[in-house]
TrEMBL record:
Signal sequence extent: 1-22
Cited SUPFAM superfamilies: Lysozyme-like
Key words of the record: Signal
The organism of origin for this protein: Streptomyces galilaeus
InterPro entries, per database record: Lysozyme-like_dom_sf (IPR023346), Transglycosylase_SLT_dom_1 (IPR008258)
Superkingdom of this protein's organism: Bacteria
Every Transglycosylase SLT domain range: 165-237
Name of this chain's protein: Transglycosylase SLT domain-containing protein
Coiled coil ranges: none
Gene3D superfamilies, A to Z: 1.10.530.10
Pfam (any one): SLT
């Protein structure tokens, strides 16, 4: 017999015993009840009642168990909700941090770009000057002299310079006249266009050498003198 059923049976017997004692105690003038009459009366109880009690207790335990499970489930759901909320907050914080870092990086990039643009705007523009080179020969000397003469506004042509150079020095930049009147006077004519030193000094073109034997300096000084005296070197056809 299960423990609970046993306890219930004992309780039943105790109750019946108490009832039997009550029946034996009667007033003095009452009829005495004999032991035999009590013994012939049997206590009636069945196992069905015990089973009903057992079922009731079992149902109560089952209900209690369900309540405990419901409470535990509710606690777990609450804990899961808290964990989910914390996870969502952490995710949001991480996204916010990443967005802030990206914004900071973009701002730094814009600042660097602006600084580079500012430096570029403030940087002086250096124009590359292409210096034309000329060959170191009579043709090159005449062409370079013509370029300088053009900048300085000195008239003259390639033909006018060439014909006078050939006549005066045969194209020798070191030529010197040591027999004419100038030579006799101690100021001989020198260079491609046979210029005397005082004339070279007076008509020297800025930007050229001060060396009278320098081909470019000699040609431009002589062309400058001829332009002043004859209008242009092209008008000179003899000693000048």
């Amino acid at each position: 017999m299960p423990k609970n059923t046993h306890k219930i049976a004992i309780a039943g017997v105790a109750t019946l015993g108490a009832a039997a004692i009550a029946f034996t105690v009667v007033p003095a003038d009452g009829q005495k009840t004999t032991t035999d009459s009590l013994s012939s009366s049997r206590v009636a109880y069945s196992s069905g009642q015990v089973r009903d009690v057992k079922a009731s207790v079992t149902d109560q335990l089952a209900v209690s168990s369900l309540k405990v499970e419901a409470i535990e489930a509710k606690k777990k759901a609450a804990a899961d909700a808290v964990a989910a909320k914390k996870k969502a907050a952490a995710t949001a914080a991480a996204k916010k941090k990443a967005a802030a870092a990206a914004a900071k990086k973009a701002a730094a990039a814009r600042k660097a770009k602006a600084a580079a643009a500012s430096r570029s705007a403030n940087r002086p523009v250096v124009k590359q000057v292409v210096v034309k080179s000329y060959p170191n020969n009579l043709d090159g000397w005449i062409r370079e002299s013509l370029a300088i003469m053009k900048k300085k506004g000195i008239p003259g042509s390639y033909h006018g310079l060439h014909k006078n150079i050939i006549r005066e020095s045969s194209g020798n930049p070191k030529a010197i006249n040591d027999w004419d009147i100038n030579a006799i006077n101690g100021i001989p004519s020198k260079g491609l266009l046979q210029v005397i030193p005082p004339t070279f000094k007076a008509y020297h073109v800025p930007g050229t050498s001060w060396n009278i034997y320098d081909p470019i300096a000699n040609i431009t000084a002589a062309a400058n003198y001829a332009a002043d005296r004859y209008g242009t070197i092209d008008n000179v056809n003899s000693a000048y």
